[in-house]
Amino acid sequence: MRQYIAVSALMLAGCWPAMADVAGSVADENEKPLRGASCVIYSLPDSTYLSSTTTDRNGLFRLPDPESRHWFLSLSYLGCEERELDNEAVAALMKSEEGMRLTLNPVANALSEIVVKGRKPQLTMKDGIMSYNIKEILSGSVATSAHALLTELPLITSNDGTTLSLIGAPTGSEVYLNGRKAQLSTSQLMDYLKNIPADQIENVEIIYTPSPKWQTSNSVINVVLRRQSAYSWNGQVTGNASYRHDISGSLGASVFAAMPKLSANVMYSFGAGRDTQKAVIEGQHSVDGTVYDVSDVTETQQDTDSHNVYTSLEYRPDNNNTIGLTWNGAFTPKSDNSEHSFNSIYGDYDSEYSGNNNMNSVTLSYSHVKGISAGLEYTNFKTRRNQLMTDISQEEEALRGLSTQRIDKVRGYLDLTSPLGRGWFLSYGGNYEFSRNANYLDNISTDPDILGDYSDAHIDENIGRLYCGFQTPYLFNHLYFNVSLAGEYYKAGQYDDLQLLPTAVVTYYHSQNHILQASYRRFRRYPSFWQRQDYVSYSNPYQVSVGNPALKPAIYDVASIMYLFRNKYVATFNYYRVGDFYLNQPYQSPTSLLLINQLYNIECSDLYDLSVTIPFEIGRRLYSTLTLNANYERFKSRDWHSLSFDKGNFGGSVMLDNRLLLSTSPKIMLNVTGMYKMPSLAGLWERPHTWLLNAGITAAFLKEALTVEVKGYDLLGTLTPIQRVRLDSQHLDLDANYYRRVISLGLTYRFRGYTDRAAKTVDTSRYGL
């Protein structure tokens, strides 16, 4: 102890230069130095983040002189009560003979030395990763689920109440759970998030340019769930009914429970209902020099029953090791479609589809706080569909078909992080994925205008990746680097290729209120198994879907700049170029009256995109986010079905999201979102101006245990415009703006079980201690 005091005095009095830095030491109640304690300076009165560091092995820390005249210092350590001191208290302690020697007491002992009134920033950045202050956001929210809470974050939007989008993400975004990729489809993952209580979220991290260890080509929204106290359980029950021309509904429940070393999460949901869609195609179809006026109207009704199950077990034998086991299943025993189409050339046709599908996925994972993460995953997917097409005018069968698909996928990964000294870290690892896809198709046609088709094939896909990278400390107190290089081998059927894929992220802390991040990344995306099959499938004699065995992976080169101002306002600029871009575009055959839907590689696609997000609030009542976007997109091909094109378009959008607190007891919140989007391109489709208006009201009762919400999406029916194609002989108009308005009613009840506070354990898995 005497050695510690001597070192502290020497460091504070002589070894550091005499300047107005904030310096001191942190110890526990027994005067033992605390290594790794968090030391953060915030300005007053707005609690804007200024600077931060952690204590060294002797419990010492040093922070640069804050620019703000009024600020406070926040100290925290796992298992200890947080302590805050304003600038006057810090100055007084630093002038004392012993210097600023601070003690943090265990959580059980509440401190009341100094109370600082101020609000911590909602958005902070550390090691190139942005994090939201969920506790602060929840205090002004009536969100009942993790999904609802995510939609209230300024950088995340949901235009339809289900899908989530990250503003400024150059190539799309993906939701992770506790740093891991969920083996769920998008709809299943959204369903799971809607059944997680909002207060179960500990943190939400935003990673615009993830390193290879994240194992994704998208930007990442990482939802960190809070660890349960021992001998506790809680959860919620949800019910939802929606109307979009037809009525659909869902019921769900989730439970989180924990013992001292074991925690579990179980979620189940059931959905049933009918979905109706309608599309009208008007075109001038040229065949061998003759132009035909074609009108094709298709209306589809889908009746579905679905079950989703998610279970997770996590075992922690100590504070260093974690073993996880998850199983999730998705079962659709009923998926029936009734499709009626009228075509001005071929007449009326009805198609009846019946089918089912199921998916099972199991993941075993292991992690260690020293920087080890490993896992093994297995996924099995099966689907079966029968089709019966009838020619109404002839009152006879036109086509009878059966299609099945089975996918078996095995994936393993190992990620390691090793300290190199002086704050440098080396990251390295790899993963391997093997998939076997078996497809069967048998279409028997009795109609001369429809071709029969038979195929029974399988394809194996192999993807292997190895990577190595490093992360630096804050060089010159301003720069942080995360650089890596991955080698990726891809083989599917007769196609195989090896690529080197670099990733580089540089974060520059110019000052406490100005953070700039620049990045470059190269990656590949792959077609789905079904899209690479050689198949032909008819909706009616005019519309046909065709597989493309010649599809190649698309290669993305993405450069991005992100600017964070005052830990609140975010601006992003992205440029990407995609080689062998996937174009999903209907094509009017020049030799027959067929509209062919086929995924096709074109030469390239380019996008320049600028987004600015401006959150603001008025009087702790109105919480708003203004999002501005400007972009230029381009699509180019020298040989798309023997046609060439080079199309570009300037566009942009304005969106304003508002949450108005109408009452605090009970808590009632009104939500209104409006958006305007300029004309845009989607491949060759030209889209005119679009508008969006969403609105909803949420009320919480019974100490916020019961929540009722009514929401409406696309209330004006203006989000889906009539789009068109004008290229050489290609002349199409598509109107799918039918049955788009959605009204929903939701009920959620949250419950809590017994908690033994004395058995509370400390989660250190994410701190690398």
Summarize the structure.
The chain has 769 residues and is mainly beta.
Major sheet description: 22 strands, antiparallel, barrel
Strand content: over 45%
For the secondary structure, the number of strands is: 43
Distance between the termini: 22 Å
Secondary structural class: mainly beta
The level of helicity is under 10%
Please state the CA-atom Rg, rounded to the nearest Å: 29 Å
Query: What's the total helix number?
Result: 5
Parts with pLDDT < 50 across at least 5 consecutive residues = 1-19, 109-119, 754-769
Q: What is the overall pLDDT average? A: 87
How would you classify the quaternary structure? single chain
- Silhouette: globular
Provide an overview of this structure.
With 769 residues, the protein is mostly beta strands. It has 5 helices and 43 strands. It has a 22-stranded antiparallel barrel. The chain has a 6-stranded mixed sheet with strand order 8-9-14-15-12-13. Strands 3-2-5-6 form a 4-stranded antiparallel sheet. The protein is globular and about 100 Å long. It starts with a helix and ends in a 17-residue tail after the last strand.
